[in-house]
Amino acid sequence: MTTFVGIDLGTTNSAISTFDGTAVRTYKSPEQNDVTPSALYFAKRGGLIVGQRAYESAARDPGSSAMHFKRILGSRTPVRVATSEGEKELTAEECSAEVLKALFAYLPEETRKGGDIATVITVPAAFNTMQREATMNAAHKAKIGRVRLMQEPVAAVMSVMRGNNDNGTFLVFDLGGGTLDIAIAESTNGRVTIQWHGGVQMLGGRDFDRILVDNVVKPWLKENFDLPDNFSASDKYKALLRAAAWSAEKAKIELSSREESVIALDEQQAATRDERGTDVYLHIPLFRETLNTLIEPRVLEAVEATRKTLSDAHLQHDQVERIVFVGGPTHYAPLRERVVQELGIKGSTEVNPMTAVSEGAAIFAESTEWEDAPVEPAKPSTGNTDLGLVLKYENRTADKRTLVLVQFSADVEGYEISFSNLDNGWVSGRLSLKNNLELKLDLPNAGDNNFRLEVVDASGLPIKVEAEHFVIKRTAAVIDSVPASHRVGLQVQDSRGNAKLLSLVEAGEPLPKSGQFEVKALEAVKAGEARAIRLRLWEGEIDAPVEDNRPVGMLKISGADFDSGEIGVGSAIVCQYTVKESGEIFLDVEVPAIQGSFNSAMRNLYSREDDEQNFESAGEEVERQLDRTSHRIHEFNEVIAHPDLGNAIERLSAAGEAIRDGDVESIQAARELNLQALKTLAAVTKENPGVMLRIKLANLKQHYATDIEPIASEKAKQKIDLLFSALDEDLVDSVDYFDEHYSELKDLFSYIWFSDFKNLAAHFHRLIKRSQNFSDKTEFERLASAGKAAISSKDQERLIRAVLALQNLWPDQETVDENFFLSTTNVGV
Predict the structure, then answer these.
(1) SS3 breakdown of the chain: % helix, strand, coil, rounded to 5?
(2) Are 328 and 353 in contact (CB under 8 A)?
(3) Which residue, 9, 248, 474, 523, is the most exposed by fewest CB within 10 angstroms?
(4) In this predicted model, what pLDDT tens digit does every residue of 486-499 receive, in sequence order?
């Protein structure tokens, strides 16, 4: 018998539940709590503690503790902890795996060791592709068997449906420790359609804790102790601030049931002395009114995200019956009341906000197919080949009665058919076998309902049928489809040399989805070479520039991956892809030129690591991204003032200030904010396309005057003048030819610029100076050495090849040089 397990792997707390088709059970921690803190503690005498004891130990020994690591899943940011054997670096995947192991240990031993287990682990809908894959890797490290991922709001919907099968539309507001997920679901007779979902990736209870530390704890410490102005950036005070965050979280939780609490640490817990040698402590009264005021901007941000989700679903607030609150922070009544007040939709607490996601995940695990093949809503069973007998029915349904359709192709005059329920002995009796015969079957059992069919000929003799036994599963609810959170596309180069996205799936499109496309190689790769064809994936809705979206991974086919032959320029690359319900992406690639097959599950091929960022060392890089985005928005806003752009500039400025402390979460939040600002800029640009074209042209003219004109020949200058005149005319008469003339001019600039050895060498040095951005260190070192040798020997062609290869290897979304125009894509359409 299969045990169906659901795990809510949370930022702050995690939970594990099972569902047997009838009852849901949530397994308690050793402390008899429904949830387990997602916390690790490395004891001084050795050994690892996971859960509540680890969380409690974080106050007295924060350096030996690890918490909130879910927020850095999908990045290369290390988790550093002090252990009995010295400092140790862990990945967020390894930390998450330890939490999964601890949760799994709550299951009965006979289930863990001898049973067939199918587990669904939830991820936020706002998670990107890299974060989803990192979660799956954590499950593999935990060795918990068959695992699928499911989006948290969908799991919450399943939990709601188990307790309330009423028809209608409802909204799930899932505010967890790290993310806000919103799902709008429509229920019809137990069938659920997720109409849309949205959310905010860096918005949760953890952010409320940080607000308390920044606005209450830090000012109080400065007022009461002798601390440097930038003490939060000092290693000396990092342990103090981690302990203070722990205390702030506890005080915040207490305000769920009280009007007043205290952020408190005694001298032993603080374990820090100020600049005068005085022992530091904390004792700060905290009132509900204070907390409400401080978190109000983030609560209103959550409200705006909900309004946007409603708008994307083309719904008004009065078309939604209720908001179902899920997640620990929604325990706080003032937060729920503010959301209800702002949206004008009735609030509901019909599910346990702490366990709804794990319970819903277990229900989903029981209701879904576990084969690798895509799930079809109707699964036919084929009977006797000679008869051509086919039964059509839904193999999973939430209904207590279901329709079976009988079809056949042979002459069956006088034949009869009968059905029987093998579980309770019900028999239909013999029915005349007619084509398109319909029969309603009762499904008395939650879970599997086992049936048998029999066919007899005109003489009453039994006719053997291949699929005489079939099973129909009655589930708590059925999710018809899950909409994709974002567009996912493959970067290609069009005939004009411009980068564009070839869409695999669009935002809102039903998942799972499979498809196929064909591209061609724009660069030759021979067997054994280090060079590679790179199929780069991006996530986001921005058409141009492609780099404004989120990089999510790359399928690399290098010369080292095949033994003979060559992928020539123009060679066909055939890609089959699947985007699963969880948002996971799988690619299978055929290259006929070398008779090669490659897939994203093969070792050393799919490399999300190339796009993962180490937020510990990314502060300067992210600050450059913020400055660059702010500059672009300022350019646009000077022409057409737009309130959304003004707000984006203010938030980018505040984010830039916050990351100077070197705090990992602030850097990550700033990067997410930068992506959101780019999305805002793209939306406003789409409404005013002519403005952006004028800005692009002005920048191009400035670049020409500064960098290109001094090194251009007279003949080139004449051609450039003609192209600039054409662009000016395009803006006045018709923009149809603007992109073509603009691309031609860019290509000419690139040719002139590349012809100048000094410029080329300067760009090469800018690339290798930022070596931390290249995760493929071996290839980077090879190309850096080749470029240096080319500069020494004044070999321009060799230097061009090194620069192009380095640019192609560049993983980050920021352009290295604003005026470097060559495309980094080496596949095209």
Answers:
(1) 40, 25, 30
(2) yes
(3) 523
(4) 899 999 988 777 78
